[in-house]
Specification:
212 residues, alpha/beta, DHBP synthase, nine-stranded mixed beta sheet, 17% strand, globular
């Protein structure tokens, strides 16, 4: 289990990482898409609150619009500005984030339909990776989706990025090789795991042991 203060993975390499983060943040501010590392795989990020940018993420990935994207933020507290979790869902999020977990909660008004495929719920992602969170702190919410063309494998090294993705982004933050394990997607209110990935066993135990 992790909390907002943990810095266990994705160490920050001083000047090199800070320069890359600044360039990527400037690219996002200019409406561009970026590739960034997480504690699972490389992500494809764009302004998650801008419908046009979100549409470009779908287009670049060749992803079905019916398959929603998650909302990447720097912390659980940051997520509260854009979502309306119940007390139970918030307790779950504080127990497992930052970490390789996507937590599904009610979205706020600022989150566009394009991101959620029209659903009133959205997946929150707070990466347990210092570089990713530094970027998110600079940019605000980014799309949190793997940096690959839909149907192809997730990317754990910048060198393995598909040419379509590489050519379609304005900046790439190289954080070295990532572990490659998928995040676990869970709706704590429904006590439902939609996709088993990292920490799935600990998540099941928490949900089973917690009072309704």
């Amino acid at each position: 289990m992790t909390n907002d203060s943990d810095e266990r993975s994705g160490g920050f390499d001083a000047l090199a990482d800070r320069d890359d983060v600044r360039r990527a943040a400037a690219a996002v501010a200019g409406g561009g898409l970026v590739v960034y590392p997480t504690e699972t795989v490389y992500g494809l990020g764009g302004d998650a609150l801008d419908s046009d940018t979100v549409e470009r993420v779908f287009e670049l990935k060749r992803r079905s619009r019916e398959n929603p994207l998650s909302l990447g933020v720097a912390s659980v507290d940051a997520a509260l500005r854009y979502t309306r979790p119940t007390e139970f869902a918030l307790a779950f999020a504080r127990a497992f984030l930052p970490g390789p977990v996507t937590v599904i909660v009610e979205r706020g008004d600022a989150v566009p339909d394009a991101l959620t495929a029209g659903s009133d719920r959205v997946g929150i992602r707070v990466p347990d990776h210092a570089v990713a969170r530094a970027l998110l702190a600079e940019t605000g919410p980014l799309t949190a989706t793997s940096a690959n063309v839909s149907g192809s494998g997730s990317v754990t090294r910048v060198a393995d990025l598909d040419g379509r993705i590489r050519d379609g982004v304005a900046a790439i933050v190289d954080g070295g090789e990532t572990p490659g394990t998928e995040s676990t997607v869970v709706d704590p209110e429904q006590r439902t795991i939609h996709r088993r990935g990292a920490m799935a066993g600990a998540i099941e135990a928490w949900l089973e042991d917690s009072p309704v």
